Amino acid sequence: MKPNMKRPPLKISELPVSNVQLREGERRSIVCPDCSEWHPLRRNMVWAHHLERTERRKNGRRCPGSARRVDIDVDLAEWSRKVAEVDATVTGRRSNRVNRKPRTTTPPPISRMGATPKPQAAAQDRHREALTEHRARCRACQRGDSCFAARALRDRYRPGEHTLISERVRAVQAVATHRVTCDVCRNGARCQVGRELELRELHTGATWTLTQEQQATREREQLRTERQESDARARFRAAQWRRVEPSVRRTDRLRHEQARTN
């Protein structure tokens, strides 16, 4: 490759130190001023290169800085000293402070996530177990009716429903108290406050009724599911017995015959 004699040579003394690589033991290279890319420095000229690289043997237009002459007009020892000073300056600007990342907390193992239930959840579990045991013994609950004991167990561990009951009681008491103290409501008419209190009482009563109906529906569905599971288990046990019954009867007959012979 012939050097490009149409353009003046690049002088190392006029280029930034960071754009030239002349260290001993490393491949010499230089940043081409035309394309601002690093390219090998061979035979004191920028090695030929192209602006765009496509497929092999089908490169793009050749860079004008290819084969441009390079004049190494500096002492390599002096140049190395300048490079060392620049590196020391850059290193000195860097902070030696270590920013430590916050230590992440180790999550508990999966086997211990549900080991300590909350008090409310534990109370609900006890309520569910007691209600299940009652339904297993109570004939009325087995027929689908909800007896008084079942309703008492159902309402015992329900903080949400207790809150609703309290709201309903307070609404009824507020209406009764207002009718006693208000002259307009005492005479049979309704003032603005009385109407609002009555609307509140009706709203809490409707909410309570709806909650009871939804709970009764859920209980019927749960009881139906339990019955279906119980029937399925009974059918499965009966099928198992039908499969092994002939063998059991044959074994019993042989045992009796052997006992008589002995």
Structure overview:
- The chain has 262 residues and is an alpha+beta fold.
- 58% of the residues lie in helices and 6% in strands.
- It is built from eight helices and six strands.
- Strands 2-3-4-5 form a four-stranded antiparallel β-sheet, with no helix packed on it.
- α3 (119-137) runs antiparallel to α5 and α6 (159-181) runs antiparallel to α8 (192-261).
The global form is elongated
Please tell me how large the radius of gyration is: 47 Å
Could you tell me the mean pLDDT? 78
Residue share in helices? Answer: 55-70%
N/C terminus separation: 117 Å
Structural class, from helix and strand content?
alpha+beta
Identify the strand order in the major beta sheet: 2-3-4-5
The H-and-E topology, N to C, reads as EEEEEEHHHHHHHH
Strand count, sense and barrel status of the largest sheet are: 4 strands, antiparallel
Strand residue content: 5-15%
Query: DSSP helix count?
Result: 8
Summarize the structure.
The chain is α+β, with helices and mostly antiparallel strands and 262 residues long. It contains 8 helices and 6 strands; from the N terminus they run E-E-E-E-E-E-H-H-H-H-H-H-H-H.
